[in-house]
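Look at one record.

>
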Amino acid sequence: MRSCPAIRSRVYKHPVEIKSDFWYLKNPLVKGTIVKKQIFVNLPVADLAHSERFYRAIGFSKVEEFSTDEGVAMAWSDDIWVMLLRHDFYQKFTAGRTIPDAKVSAQVLLALSLDSREAVDEMASKAIVNGGTLLPKVIIEGAEGMYTEDFSDPDGHIWELVFMEM
């Protein structure tokens, strides 16, 4: 099984071409090639199987070809992926830094935009039913027209769901 794209780029000194139903990356050093811009959010998780079930339940899709027993690739869209990595595997990429306990500290806030208030409510409800924790409402002055719900996943990673009325 091939390793996940975020990890492949660390293993090799240059980008490699990979083609799948979701994405491709061509070598930018070759004139005339196109690099598709994406984001791969790597999250350390305590229980890989539990985290995979949680992310499936809230709408992510598992990408088998980039999943191993050390990490699971979950696609939100063609351009937004979450890489769920076992702690020991994640630790290999942190240059010796400790993995903070996301249930007691916050290092990053992750946000996803959705197309309606109902979609925000539905995804937040799915998160809560499947082991996530609803976080207190945040009122931001000057953010009228922005509808949000925040939750943390089973490992404590904070997600903000946003609908912007424009």
In short: The first strand starts at residue 18 and ends at 19. The chain has a mean pLDDT of 83. Residues 104 and 162 are 23 Å apart (CA to CA).
